[in-house]
DNA sequence: GAGTGGTCTAGACCACCAG
DNA sequence: TGGTGGTCTAGACCACTCC
């Protein structure tokens, strides 16, 4: 360990604690910090990195949650022996394209369609839409591929009333992220309430996902909320995963 | 809103922020704070509850994550219109009995069996067991019921070498929690790495869970780590859920 | 401009672990 | 006994929202 760890004053976009966490990840990846090695004490490390102890602790907590570091009370903080590879974590909300990229594959899209229509009742109910408030939605359907092979089928509904203008998504490109387009409209998605159900696909879906017969899949039903959208959800999606090609994982804490 | 909100000095077990969160939940449940109502500002609320602002913020953040409260920068913090009922959240690791109790049902157990044997290869691999280090495990199988009806089938493996003595779990009672027994042995489970896969049950499992034919289920494969067990997992479990009776949910953050 | 949540700091006190 | 992580406090400054 040497000097020059300071990280403040770089990009002012991210939270300071997250930038510190990235810096520590980098030190481990580069071999500056070796597996099993003990880190300096928290006050000392905070001073070296030029941040306060609470900020350093938030960074360390993130790495502990990701199984990269390990804390032992009264002893110290250590680099874990086998730092695990990150998987498709359910606890983090990321765009599908980024998810596929994280797995080291190249994302693509097939069968994109954008239309305007009223959603079926179970979708309208979740979105809180009634005929009085206007139930018209933008519906986006597409199949996502990884390295050219289909991995999931997406069915997304966005109420027109949350958009700055109803045509905001009509020109969505094949490689564009709905999340990014919503963010441009001031509707950055921050939270999704998700329910996970197993399902036997119908023949149409089986063809789209190239599934053999009698293969159950996972369906994620997600209700998305933006940071400034009060109680109104901005997006409902049903994503059907080919679970032979993408594994869903979660880290649970007690 | 009135005085008498102070909560400090009660049980010193939980984190202060969590006790504050519980108190706020209570105020909402009792109707002291109504849906849509604006809370006092953070500095004022912190003063009323007798805690610092960072502590109050940790409590509020927990309720925001649970969709109970909602923050609007520059405006205030509000009680959400439809405070959702809590479901089986994937992000939190809780014992099965507690999960069923949270859903308002009465937990029970059927077909309990405890045996000692070597695990199949895929289990041994996940637990990091080799013949050299000793692969012998305690295996616990049982069907969990809610209000008398089967909701999940559990298959749990604990390496004998992590237990204080190999017979530590042999007398597990029908209504006992494996987590609690491990905690008694100084192996409190803090973290589980989980993978979620859909599955078509075989006839035996279908009978146990009272499932109709052609009904896919969810299987959670979980590798559990204790707080002080360094890199060694202490428990591997495969839980098969009757997803018509228990819904798996998760809150994802961006 | 007044009030709000968002962030970060500095420092205190404690419980735990090792020598 | 000394060093470590675990927790909580007090207060600062900022960006945002609304009047």
Automatic annotation (TrEMBL), chains A, B:
Cross-referenced Pfam families: GntR, UTRA
Entry superkingdom: Bacteria
UniProt keywords, alphabetically: DNA-binding, Transcription, Transcription regulation
Gene3D superfamilies per record: Chorismate lyase-like (3.40.1410.10), Winged helix-like DNA-binding domain superfamily/Winged helix DNA-binding domain (1.10.10.10)
InterPro entries hit by this protein: Bact_HTH_transcr_reg, Chorismate_lyase_/UTRA_dom_sf, Tscrpt_reg_HTH_GntR, UTRA, WH-like_DNA-bd_sf, WH_DNA-bd_sf
UniProt xrefs under CDD domains: WHTH_GntR
Residue ranges of domain HTH gntR-type in the record: 14-82
Descriptive protein name: GntR family transcriptional regulator
Natural source organism: Pseudonocardia aurantiaca
